[in-house]
Amino acid sequence: MSTMRAIVYHGPGRKAWEEVPLPTVQADTDAVVKVDTVTICGTDLHILGGDVAAVTDGRVLGHEAVGTVTEVGPGVKNVRVGDRVLVSCITACGACRYCRAGSYGQCIGGGGWILGHRIDGTQAGFVRVPFADTSTYAVPDGVTDEEVLMLADIGPTGFEVGVLNGRVSPGDVVAVVGAGPVGLSAIMGAKLFSPAHVVAIDLADARLEAAKQFGADITLNPAREDVVAVVRDLTQGLGADVAIEAVGVAATFEQCAQLVRPGGRVANVGVHGGPATLHLEDLWIRNVTITTGLVDTYSTPTLLRLLATHQVDLARFVTHRFAMGEFIEAYDTFARAADTRALKVVVTA
After folding, report:
1. CB within 8 A of 32, min separation 6: which ones?
2. 250-259 vs 227-234: helix axis angle to the nearest 10?
3. Where in the chain is the domain with CATH 3.90.180.10?
4. Which fold does the domain 3-153+296-348 belong to in CATH?
5. What tens digit of pLDDT does each residue of 258-289 get?
6. Which family does it belong to (predicted)?
7. DSSP alpha helices (H): ranges in the chain?
C-alpha cells in the first residue's frame, strides 16, 4: 500500500476525500501514526472559508487525532511503535526560545500549529508527526479514544486561551460568548476555579442547552435579550470579571468589550478572519486587559490527569460519529451545527 485517502483542501470552499501518498519518516525525530480516531475543528471551517491564507491547495487538513505509532525515526527516544498516542494540534521542537518558555504554539524551531496548516494533517489514514517526543502524549489507561481526542485542541484551547489567560478566579462572574466546542471547554475549565456565575451567550438555543450541561449557570440569547444589561444587573452594574470570546467574528469580540467590568479581562479565543473595531476611546480609562492567543498545549498533561481521574467529562462533547469513508458527510454535519445540533463529530477508522 503506497497511498491512503485523506481530506484535501483545494482552495476556499473546496475539499475532497481523495487518494494521497502515505506519509513517511522524513527527519530523525518524526513518527508516523495510524489515525484511529479524528475530528473536525472550527478552525478547519475557517480554513475552508478562506480565512487562513497559509493553507495551500493540496494540503491534507486536520490537526487532532488519537492513533497508533507505526514508525519512528532514529532520534525518537520515548515514543515506540505500537504506542497509543494523542497527536497534539501543536507541534513543539522543544529547544527553541519559545518552547523553552512553554510557548509551544509560537515555536520557531519547525513546530507551532503546522499540522493541517503548513504540513499535511490528521484527517487521513496516517499522519507524519514531527518532533514526536514533544508533540504526542501517551493515552492514559481506562479512557476512550474519543475522550482523549477532545484534548488534542479544544480542551487546552478553552482552558489556556480562555480561562488561564482570562485569569478566572474564585467568585468571578465569567461571560462566555459562543457556546460551541471551545466555548463549552472554557465553561468546563472555568468551573474548576469556582466562579460565582458562568454566563453562556449564543444565538443557538441548542448550544445554550449544551452550555447548561457543561456548567453554565445562566444562558442568554442576544436575539431575545439585552445581554449587556442582564450581566450588569447580575454584577451590581459593573459587568463581568472575565469575558471570553469563543466565536471569532467582530461582533462577538466587540460584545465582550461591552460586557467586561472596569479592571476586567477580555480573553479572545476565536479565530478571526477579518478585523474587529477596538474601542480604545472607551476601554483605556476602564483598565481593561485584552489577551489573545494560539493554544500552546502546555496544559495538556494536567488535563490528561484530570481526565484519567474522571474530574472532567469529555465524552459529552461527542454528538455524532462517522466512519472514515463518511468524512464528507461528517463535514456537512459539523458545518450545519445550528441545524444538526453537532458539538464534536468523531470519525473512526
Report:
1. 23, 24, 25, 69, 70, 71, 72, 126, 127, 128, 129
2. 30
3. 3-153+296-348
4. Quinone Oxidoreductase; Chain A, domain 1 (3.90.180)
5. 999 999 999 999 988 889 999 999 999 999 99
6. Belongs to the zinc-containing alcohol dehydrogenase family.
7. 42-48, 97-100, 132-135, 145-149, 154-156, 181-191, 205-213, 227-234, 250-259, 280-283, 300-308, 327-335, 337-340
